[in-house]
Amino acid sequence: MRALLAVSCLVLGVGVALCTVLLHGYAWGLALGLAATAATLVALPGGWWARLAFAIGWTALLAFVTPERAEGDYLVAADVNGYVLLLAGILVLAAGFVGVRPHRPAAADADPEVRVP
Questions:
Q1: Category of 35 on φ-ψ map: left (φ > 0), alpha (ψ -120 to 50) or beta
Q2: Over the chain, what HEC string results?
Q3: What is the pLDDT along the chain (117 residues), one digit of tens a residue?
Q4: Is-contact 55 41, C-beta < 8 A?
Q5: pTM assigned to the model
């Protein structure tokens, strides 16, 4: 079941990144794409099968469209919006790794009778 969810999150990441890349030339498109990306990263639980899969899909599409195209131009422009998009790719990948390992409460947190001075 987790593998199916991982593939779904990967495809979701590719879709959100595609929309963000195609609209990053407009300020409202870049803001909307980054807001949707951040909201999805916050909403997904940590783990390789959810948040990390989304982040890998997002950054994989960005890496795929970044090189020079056959026509000699670039899909990601070399302007402020393009550089913000590339920086966002680094941050999205870093955010994907946050929470990969599950948080285990410390021994003092597990037992309410134990008090630490």
A1: alpha
A2: CHHHHHHHHHHHHHHHHHHHHHHCCCHHHHHHHHHHHHHHHHHCCCCCCCHHHHHHHHHHHHHHHCCCCCCCCCCCCCCHHHHHHHHHHHHHHHHHHCCCCCCCCCHHHHCCCCCCC
A3: 778 888 888 898 999 999 988 888 888 998 999 999 999 988 888 777 888 889 999 999 988 888 776 666 566 777 888 888 889 999 999 988 887 766 566 555 555 565 555
A4: yes
A5: 0.78
Calpha distance 111→107 (Å, rounded): 7
CA pair distance 30, 22, nearest whole angstrom: 9
